[in-house]
């Protein structure tokens, strides 16, 4: 009974059913493509909450003591906290809480909400209720997916109404839209502009105008009445004002007998409110429609649907309407996808032609084509399950799956035709484990610069898994499905291999003698190979400080003055090999290239006290210059406030890669020198500036920590005084901003002399009131209903828009005594740094001291280390000083070395278990540096500018080297076990030579398949340096597999 059950289970697993199951998975992959995460941004703070609150008119010290510290103390009781940071500024406070991985963020948010309800009553009464952001909410994108720009010959308020109505109706049927916002237009307001001279002539104070207007515009409650039923009602007299003319007839009380109406001393009309922000394209005022989508929808596909819907409804708009996309969050990804898919099709076409040329058997062709399609679709399925973002690196990984699919299928086809399935299973399983484990470890790199490499390595690991499934499961069953008995005609099945063997016999003896000659001088060959690769002596530091015995040994040997000056310069060159040449000539010129669209940014900052109109006037002059330059595609102006404004400049095709962007940048810098009091930041990004180092002066930062704020401030000032002793150190800031997103603010401070004010018969209160009467007013103080519409009321002096710092100090101000004063007689206007921000991390106060060194960065770094050592020695207990730049700069190489070691160790143990030998894994690992020689030579002789993709080249070449070595060693080990008494060297040569035709074809297929990508040229990020490195590495991988590997395995003791 058991036997029958067992046979039934085996019989049900037929080749037809297995192939059907794979086809079902392939169809599922096609259906799941629209659900892929096509994103251009990476969420990195999913385990972090940010609590923000405000307390108007509170200083940073008051907020830190009365609010931030209280909240921090309460939040620190939560479990699972990894780090807690806070910042307290003028009128606001924020607390960032980062939890460890695996924390239930929904439950933590519930705990935070409960704590805030309990603590809020203990905060100052002016505190706004704290807002919690982050956690799982980070999945909802904060940025719009599309921004449309509308221009029309209408007032912006009217254009806003029409545009909002049209867009909401048009997109009402599109599922997935979260919200639609309209910006760039201000509503109308009732403007009352009084003439200060007329007010003085009639002896009317501007404050009286406010009182009178309030009396007429407000509804008056004169009392209550009671009904017969005992109910009590309020009696309200509503405002009787209905038109602007009625407002002008309001009588203003005065001491004279003349009746004075509001229209006699003020101009009253409806006008658009002064803009609080500006958004223009090519210097033209415009309206912006921002479209936000829900996080559960595919941004790429939904953005295309929205654009198609709006494109179809565009003819319904008037001819005077100009509609254009000003921002597309998916544009760059869309261009990359189209280009990469086109390159993939070219690559697939080349591979198909090669397969048709080399394989005449229809069954083999069908198996190869089926495996390629299956490998790609299963890779897509695994990518979706693993929730990996689809970007350029992911597409490279998917493209690489085609090449792996061809290689694996060819290898497995050979095993199937030669009836060695069992050995093929072991070889492919070992290769998968030996490669997938280290790739998974590398994918754990979380350094910001290596996020793409992390996704790439994880994607390659998934591709290897998909290729393994196709090779082990699909390929053998396809052969079984097409032929019931593969061995029924062994001669037919092996005729090609037999002919190849007969042809290759004339070369086999020559190959045997060549390897024998090289192997007899194996030590010399290996020594030469090591010297070619290079010894990393150049990486040894010049000094190693410490008191241990090994520090003393280093000081008297490699750290001695004789070695450093007499031996090291020569040793580093002659013993460094290709690795040293690569580090000196190529690595030092490497950078993180941003080869997106070339763009130039002009950022302007003004101190507090300036207006949005003043910022707009400055940037308008920049726009007027840019409009005269030929070669500029578009310049977009954004003014967010009176303190910040920027212009983004893009260039026409053909002008973005020459010197034109640099020329515009230099001209803008020259023009910026004409404005005093404006802080400029002009810089470029993208292709035109990818190799621009900016000529920046080395900047250094020292991070001070302590639990006493006042003492920490004293230590920062003391450290700053010591740094000023160095003549080349400039721009010392003892209170540098700890948050990169913040900007140092400036403000005008009016210093008034109380004694002199007393001589003029006034005080600060009167002076502030007089300034308020003639300066520009931006706040609404009243509302009125006109023509059944609600309008805010603005009361201001007629010439308030022209009020400036000069007017503030020099214009006469009239006191109640009718005497005139000028502020310049007893006041000074000074430009000072704005309120500082108090930073804390893990409840310790943070202070950053920054400085610039006018000279070599190495010397500046030495001064930095010396200053940190002195500070740690002199500061009280509990205070520390560290290099703030080390937080992200020095940990990256350490992590890379650590993961490389873990990867090599995992490869060693997997291969040791596979071959049941602890020496053969060293042979496999030794193939990696042999192959990397080709990568380094390609980078050197190809004059390639390294970017973030060179690390991916190392990974791919290492994969080919390890896989080739494992497959050959599997055959060699199998031959040794079957014929233990035969000549092992001869068996070695035969096993290696058997793989030569297959590996040669794979090498041709992979190389030709990569050619379309390299045709894009060096300006194609992640492709040119990547592909050039892979091609060079494959050449040395091929040579290493058929020359160095047999030399490693040659048995010199055997006759």
Automatic annotation (TrEMBL):
Domain of life: Bacteria
Keyword Membrane among record annotations: yes
Gene3D superfamilies, A to Z: Multidrug efflux transporter AcrB pore domain (3.30.70.1440), Multidrug efflux transporter AcrB pore domain like (3.30.70.1320), Multidrug efflux transporter AcrB TolC docking domain, DN and DC subdomains (3.30.2090.10), Multidrug efflux transporter AcrB transmembrane domain (1.20.1640.10)
One annotated GO molecular function: xenobiotic transmembrane transporter activity
Keywords: Membrane, Transmembrane, Transmembrane helix
Calcium is among the record's keywords: no
GO cellular component: plasma membrane
Pfam families, alphabetized: ACR_tran
TM stretches of this protein: 12-33, 343-359, 366-386, 392-411, 423-441, 453-475, 524-544, 897-915, 922-941, 953-972, 992-1015, 1021-1050
Protein's recorded name: Putative RND-type efflux pump membrane protein
